[in-house]
Write a structure and sequence with these properties.
With 148 residues, this protein is of the alpha/beta class. The protein has 4 helices and 7 strands. Pfam families: Rhodanese.
Length: 148
């Protein structure tokens, strides 16, 4: 069974979905893939989404390197991880901004449909500077420590 995704329209990729919509898509679509495009430091310090209960693994590929530069091997790394666009690809970053570029680039390379997760893993910081209002973690979706 495949989930019907009601994505918010976007230019250059399939659209934006909420963390819960991302989870539902991954849970109901066997060939759907989750790609976390944050930096390795973010994975280690903040944790990662846990889709093991869905009998899936997260693909970890940095959109930018730890020094803030674009990852020139991004598409090659996606393809090496088996992300081909044979099913939906869900891109996740910290707040839902970097993953837009990842979804656009993947779409332009024929890896589609590619979705961006609104709010990302942690969401944007609130007025107090703390990221505790939105995102995958705040939605109560499964998280784990990064182990590689």
């Amino acid at each position: 069974m495949t989930a019907t995704v009601q994505a918010r329209p976007a230019e250059g990729y399939a659209g934006d979905i909420t963390p819960q919509q991302a989870w539902d898509l991954l849970a109901t679509t066997p060939d759907a893939v989750l790609v976390d495009v944050r930096t390795e430091g973010e994975w280690r310090l903040v944790g990662v989404p846990d889709v093991a209960g869905l009998d899936k693994q997260v693909v970890f590929t940095q959109w930018v390197t730890s020094d803030g530069r674009p990852n020139p091997g991004f598409l090659t790394e996606l393809q090496a991880a088996g992300v081909t666009g044979d099913g939906p690809v869900v891109f996740l970053c910290r707040s839902g901004q970097r993953s837009i570029g990842a979804a656009r680039l993947a779409t332009s390379a024929g890896i589609a449909p590619s979705y961006n997760v609104l709010e990302g893993f942690e969401g944007a910081p609130g007025l107090n500077g703390i990221r505790d209002r939105e995102g995958w973690k705040v939605a109560g979706l499964p998280c784990a420590e990064y182990a590689r």
